[in-house]
User: Fold this.
Amino acid sequence: MRNQPKRSAGDIEPDTDVPSVARIYDAYLDGKDHFPVDDEAVARVVAKTPWAKPVARFNRAFMVRAVETAARAGIRQIVDVGCGMPNEPSAFSAARSVDPGIHVIGVDNDPMVLALGRSMAHAGDGIHLVPGDVRDPEAILATLEPFVDWSQPVALVLTAVLQFVPDEKDPLAILRVLRKPMAPGSWLLLSHSSTDGTAPEVVAGVEGAYEGVTAQIKYRSDERILAFFEGMTLLEPGLVAVQDWRPGRDAVDTSDIPGPVVRLAGAVGVLPE
Assistant:
């Protein structure tokens, strides 16, 4: 049963011949919801840098810390665009660990994510999983309309998502659409693969390893990543490697990870009230 994942996704028939961004990320996190073709894609990336899997874990931990921080600050609506497979910890569990009444809406375009989310009961009072593709932000906003009160602050989560939007699709314009209805006091929790701190040959190698995947990865500079936070105030420590954003109990020692380094940059911005 070479092409069977470790967990059933219901009645869907995912394409087991084409690697999926969501399933690759699941493989990075040693999850259960991917296929051999996704493992092969991961192996190609790991061959370029052993940081591939550790930095995915660092990114997930950053998301959890940022969501918890938003929840403790009083945000009661979390929208996680590109939420991915139902690995734990998730934005759902992170938010609800602070306040069980927080509304959390996950958005994803991968059919296997949506099927597994339904089968694992990511639905109920204040918990929703809805279809949406970040490359079509207007459709996402229309889908979110029944679930989000835009007159109140929301935390928009986009961790390692916009790096899969090519320049010709204008990720900054996409984010401006998603941010347009956000009330003052809303938060943006964002991470993105950065050319700053990542060797050019690694950038080229990783981008090449994603050829043939459902979406091509694109590294961008810190300057371009900071542009996503236009008009916002960045929380300390600003834009940093994800493992360095308020690590606390999650602090990691990266000295034993062999090079070359991959830098995934993350920050949290707040719309002034």
User: Anything to note?
Assistant: Residues 52-72 form the longest helix (21 residues).
